[in-house]
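Blinded run. Sample ID left blank on purpose so nobody reads anything into the name before looking at the predicted structure. Input follows.
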Amino acid sequence: MNTTTQFKIDGMTCASCVGRVENALLKVVGVTNATVNLATDTATVQGTASHSELITAVIEAGYQVPVKVKQFGIGKMSCSSCVKRVEQALLKVTGMVSASVNLATEQVQVRTLSFVTDEQLAQAVTQAGYLFIPLNNDSVIQKTNKHQPFYTKAWWPVLGAGLLTLPLVLPMFGMLFAQQWMLPPVWQWLLATPVQFYFGARFYRAGWGALKAGMGNMDLLVSIGTSAAFGLSLYLWWSFDSAHGMPHLYFESSSAVITLVLLGKYLEHKAKRRTTDALRALENLKPVEATVQRLGKWQKVAASSVQSGEKVKVIPGESVPVDGEVLQGQSHLDEALISGESIPLSKKEGDIVTGGSLNLDGILEIRATNVSTESTLSKIIELVEQAQGAKAPVQAIVDKVSSIFIPVVLLVALTTLLVTGLAFDDWTNGILNAVAVLVIACPCALGLATPAAIMTGTGTAARLGVLVKDAVALEQAKEINLVVFDKTGTLTQGKPVVNKMTVISGSEEAVLQLAYSLQINSEHPLGKAVVEKALTKGTQPIPVDEFQVVAGYGVKGNIADKLVLMGSSHWMQELGVKLPTDQIEILGASVSWLASQQQDQITLLGLFCFSDKLKSDTLQAVKLLQQQGIKVAMLTGDNQASATSVATELQLDDFKAEVLPADKAKYIMEYQAQGYQVAMVGDGINDAPALAQADLGMAMASGTDVAVSAASFTLMRSKPSLVPTALIIARMTYRKIQQNLFWAFIFNAVGIPLAAFGYLDPIIAGAAMAFSSLFVVSNALLLQRWTLKEK
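Blinded prediction complete.
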């Protein structure tokens, strides 16, 4: 059916842009007419093409379409068929780009054009027979639940149905001891009826909603199956001659199945909540109040109202309400739940603090920098939510199976009934076998297999300091067989130290004293390294006159009536100094020459070589990767000698030296051309081209500098050991997905034939169905037990 759609386009500047966009839209299959208005930056398109196809065409033409991403909860879902139904209902909303429902979180993530409202989304969900739940009301819902009457609690249907079912199933155990505990038919009916139509009403409501939508779901199977058993019991009771004793009824089967399914759903819900433990822990870190200086005094305000630039006070025991810079005070902050760093970090004036971290022992006054949704914690939560709400590529196969699952099960159940009834003239057993087929064939396990594993895996990763952008990244990570590290700041501390000092003229003490005296006034990292070395030796500085920084070269100043210079090889060569590089061993990424000048004569006094120390866990990280069969390489702009030294110490499989940042992506392409699946690890900013080119980009973050947009994985601590940790978690998560899908298919592949041939009692079938869903969620939860073992 032809529809008319209007949407905004960003990036157009002139009439040629209009023509370009219109041509791109007209090429989309199904578009009959497309006009673009430059004044309003709006495109009007007629035809049958989907919104995602139109947006893709605009983007490929070099422009952007503003798209809103929203998440909200969905109530009353029971299985993977419900997932499909909700997605289809939402995709019918005009302006919808995509909809992805997560059965494990009972949430949906939608991408819409800007004009789509929450009311439209809620209407679509409600008409499909489900509940629309705004996520920002979760806390209100949870609080009000505490004061609701018991019969509205989640456990009440399980308890109520269980108490009524118990007298019905106890006679089955009595038979094992030759005891006749069977209740009279009227008592069986009185106990079974409320179970069937009060506690089991949810199955009828949801099943009827599915029928009206032309689809099937788990509720439909349960309602048909238990109704058949209940109806068969009524028929046998009505047609039985009381003179021949008591009829054999099946009220216990219908009631037990409903009770077991309710129990399974309750336990499944409890287990699913555990998969979001990491996300809830992060949400709980958000402080509610903040102490802010306003109108000259400290006052308590809502943390969400703090503005950037305001002064905030944090006392011991309070959480830091916003990202900021310490203006006054000193304390230790616990950032374990944010970065995974278990050791409290010392913070003093000038240091950066992250919102959500716990102040342990001192009073801090900070200046707010990033507040509300711009804070590091908010970005982390958003990233974790997106990762947990995303679908893995393998889920597409599951969705296809689920879409035909219910019709196939109904056909198998009908065939079982007809074959048993017509061929064997046993309609009673035919109905019971069909009921067992309907009850055991639950698509819940299939629907939960993938999202439960992804949620637990990404949650565990977040707890350990690894943020995963999406489920696709997890699947890519399991294929990685080469990890390429940037060197400075990634493998090394990013803080140079004096690696070697060579005296050319004079004594070692005199050379170090002159260098220290010059560099004590310098802010350059190499100068600070000289100062640190001098301090460890107890060297005293000499007064310096006319100190000057020579940009790009070094520093100089007058000491004891002599001009002393300290700087690069290039500077010395420009001054006409012949450097004895053939006689002196140069060991380090950077060097600085010390010289003195009297009149026109320049005399070399010494050479300082600098190196950047490896991080404490770098060697461990490389070994862990190589033990996993992954090769490790390094790209660095350092000289060949320095790179060779590091590569030898770490026993790297390959390295490239003197690499410009712009050329790193080229080397990644070369590795890929050799057949490697490459992960690039860098700082997420200077290494952006290489991170984008790699099969998997891993950004090494530091403090609040979280490069969430630069890579598929963000490492919250600047520790190389998080790289093997991230890859291990990715592989374990994908293994859990495979295990869950295998068992979900096995439950149905084995259970349905057994039920069809009469080898499964409906009660056993109901228990097996409930167990299958609980099993896949519990199997995924095993990921939470995995912890990083650091040496």
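Unblinding after everyone has recorded impressions. The longest helix spans residues 722-756.
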